[in-house]
Design brief:
Strand order of the largest sheet: 1-2
Number of strands: 2
Number of helices: 5
Structural class: mainly alpha
Distance between the termini: 34 Å
Order of helices and strands: HHHHEEH
Number of domains: 1
Strand content: under 5%
Largest sheet: 2 strands, antiparallel
Helix content: 40-55%
Shape: flat
């Protein structure tokens, strides 16, 4: 059986920042060139998970960014091609 260890939010953030420093200057990071596409998505109606995946596309930080979003359940908006705010809103509705 395969066991995937979840990273702590702090560790995931450190890995994301480390990976970010290794990206060559000529490589575009989608959220750095068009941040407005990634912020405030919880207010969009309806939130489109496909939109999140399309925005992150071929980003070289996709995996560490996703890991950070997964580890940091308080992180809203888009992280690693996933709308974590959508998942948080779903969890909140289930707990009510």
């Amino acid at each position: 059986m395969t066991h995937t260890k979840r990273l702590s939010a702090t560790r995931a953030y450190e890995e994301l920042k480390s990976a970010q420093k290794k990206v060559p200057a000529n490589v575009l990071i989608p959220c750095e060139i068009a941040l407005e596409r990634f912020q405030d998505l919880p207010q969009m109606q309806p939130v489109d998970q496909e939109h999140a995946r399309n925005q992150c596309g071929d980003c070289p930080l996709l995996k560490p960014c996703y890991n950070y979003g997964r580890a940091n359940k308080g992180a809203l908006d888009i992280w690693g091609g996933n709308d974590w705010g959508r998942e948080a809103r779903f969890r909140n509705r289930m707990e009510d």
